[in-house]
Amino acid sequence: MIHAPLPVTPGPYRTPGLLLGPYYPLQVPIGADANLWRGDTLPAGTRHLRLEGRVLTREGAPAPNACVELWQADPRGYYRHASAPGHAQVAAGFAGYGLTHCDAEGRFDFRSLVPGAYAESGVVRAPHLHAQITGRVDRLVTQLFLPGDERNHLDPWYCAVARPERLLPQVIRDEANALHLHWTVFITQA
After folding, report:
1. Which of 29, 52, 55, 61 lies closest to 132, judged by CA?
2. What pLDDT was estimated at residue 108?
């Protein structure tokens, strides 16, 4: 199914911030780039994820060269982080962390796998991606959630923000083996 992107209307808001989470890497992995999935074949029962987007100021100006970092669990809910439960079971070929810099128009583009849900310490987490956006004078740490996932409303961090819909990217294409999303992030200043 293909969805036409909605027009981006700058608003007087900044994308809501959320906590960094316990599985942000202590050191950026060598060779980290915008490809979190480096495997040759798609593991059974998983889907490709493409997350493209833009980083804009609240006034709608692009944030050229902003650094966008993304980290997430694999499709079974395991993080590639030494302190994460099940880290030894992470899908082979799944980096779990990536970074890229925006172009002159504030655009970025990641390739990954659709993350899985998981429970930790009795807390159920809906499938989500962590993001850190660092501009020249502004940094935003947040999370984004999969549109239409019924577990979003059970996730304590999704429910923690006043306008959680601002943490939902737009669906561009939703197919059997691939999900293509677009996310516009609003920061205070580029």
Report:
1. 55
2. 98
Q: Could you give all domains of the chain from N- to C-terminal order, each with its CATH number?
A: 48-187 (2.60.130.10)
Q: Is 104 exposed, middle or buried (0-12, 13-18, 19+ CB in 10 A)?
A: exposed
pLDDT for 10 equals 53
CA–CA distance, 12 with 15 (Å, rounded to integer): 10
Whole-prediction pTM? 0.91
User: Is the pLDDT assigned to residue 175 strictly greater than 60?
Assistant: yes
For 69-102, the pLDDT digits (tens) are: 999 999 999 999 999 999 999 999 999 999 999 9
3-state secondary structure the chain: CECCCCCCCCCCCCCCCCCCCCCCCCCCCCCCCCECECCCCCCCCCCEEEEEEEEEECCCCECCCCEEEEEECCCCCCCCCCCCCCHHHCCCCECCEEEEECCCCCEEEEEEECCCCEEECCEEECCEEEEEEECCCCEEEEEEECCCCHHHHHCCCCCCCCCHHHHCCEEEEEECCEEEEEEEEEECCC
